[in-house]
Specification:
Length: 380
């Protein structure tokens, strides 16, 4: 369900169609297509192979061409093809493909960015929260959604917290000074339409409640970073705990460290680790632990990651207990290999093993295999 910044970066591969006096293109366009041919080889709910895909067409306008230096206007129109592979075939909660979503063609992002001072930048419009907050740069290679924004955060809200595939209107500011970067965002509490999640909706943030997110990043040396983030919904949500039936608050936090471990010539070993928590009275996942390592050499990248999502007691003993005993945790291990076949063309075989899919004891552990293809224009 969720796509992290690695996907957004593909959509931002831009090509100039004109140039102004400073040789900066006033309008840039780009396109990308990511598709997964993926199937269950063993276990899960049922065997089967499906074809998933996401296409993006982007346009970026540089305000410098009309005398508004530093101002950027960005638009991304997205198309998605289903089916619900995790729900129908795997049975997992974390979602093994981060391009899975309901079929739709709609505006995905549409925002304006303005430099307020030399260190302060503001952005407003339809914004993908995961392009600014809880970004995992090292984990961007993986297919599993948990290696983007953590599932402790992505599970929240009515249609999710303004991430793929349902963004919300927002306003945010970003401060950059020395080795520190700080971000504060206010997002509408409801992403998209409650009547039809496939539709984007423009409303002022806060009309249906607000999601407030704050994050601080600290660079360590030249190739590592630490993140600390907190989030809170001003609206209240249905309780999962029969002992406390009143509606409760949804909030949580996350911490992550990522960066290069070793480098020699054109070979680099990178790694990351992340922990995230959410109020389990109103959210199924109370704790998430994830991490992995990525080895890059030339046009090839090899990665291994693990994603461990733990149910909170209210969900395990309350809301899900009516369906039978629930396992404590769902864990996925992913092994992936990316090869840049041509400029703008990437092929990526992938294997995932899901333990306790959907926390349901009656669903067998699932072996998922697949192949991802990525195309981008202009190539880079």
């Amino acid at each position: 369900m969720r796509v992290r910044r690695g996907l957004a970066a593909m959509a931002l591969l831009l090509t100039p169609i004109a140039a102004h006096a400073e040789d900066t293109p006033p309008i840039s366009i780009g396109a990308s297509y990511i598709t997964d041919v993926i199937g269950v080889a063993h276990g899960g709910k049922q065997r089967g192979v499906v074809w998933l895909g996401r296409a993006d067409a982007t346009a970026s306008v540089d305000g410098g061409a009309i005398g508004l230096d530093g101002v950027t206007l960005f638009v991304d129109v997205m198309g998605v093809q289903k089916p619900d592979f995790s729900g129908r075939f795997v049975g997992d909660a974390q979602t093994v493909s981060n391009v899975q979503a309901n079929s739709a063609i709609r505006p995905y992002e549409a925002w304006i960015g303005v430099p307020v001072t030399a260190t302060l930048y503001a952005k407003a419009g339809l914004i993908d929260l995961n392009s600014e907050f809880d970004v995992q740069s090292v984990g961007g290679i993986f297919l599993n959604s948990s290696f983007g924004i953590g599932p402790d955060f992505s599970q929240t809200g009515v249609n999710g917290p303004s991430i793929f595939p349902a963004p919300a209107t927002a306003g945010m500011v970003r401060y950059t000074g020395g080795r520190w970067t700080a971000r504060l965002g206010v997002f509408d509490a409801v992403a998209g339409s409650t009547a039809d999640p496939r539709r984007s909706v423009l409303r002022l943030p806060g009309i249906r409640g607000a999601l407030i997110v704050a994050e601080a990043d600290r660079r360590i040396g030249d190739h590592a970073e630490v993140q600390l983030g907190l989030w809170h919904y001003t609206t209240r949500f249905a309780s999962l705990d029969p002992a406390f039936p009143a509606r409760g608050t949804s909030q949580g936090g996350y911490a992550q460290i990522e960066g290069d471990v070793a480098s020699r010539g054109d070979t680099t070993l990178s790694a990351w680790a992340r922990i995230g928590t959410a109020s389990d009275r109103v959210n199924q996942i109370g704790l998430y632990l994830g991490g992995g390592a990525v080895l890059r050499r030339g046009r090839n990248t090899l990665g291994i990651g693990i994603a461990h999502a733990r149910l909170g007691d209210p969900a395990r003993l309350g809301a899900l207990a009516a369906q039978g005993p629930a396992d404590r945790a769902e864990t996925t291990i992913e092994l992936t290999f990316e090869h840049r076949l041509l400029p703008g063309v990437i092929v990526q075989p992938d294997v995932q093993y899901v333990f306790n899919p959907g926390w349901a004891p009656e669903v067998h552990d699932a072996l998922v295999t697949g192949m991802r293809f990525r195309f981008a224009y202009p190539p880079r």
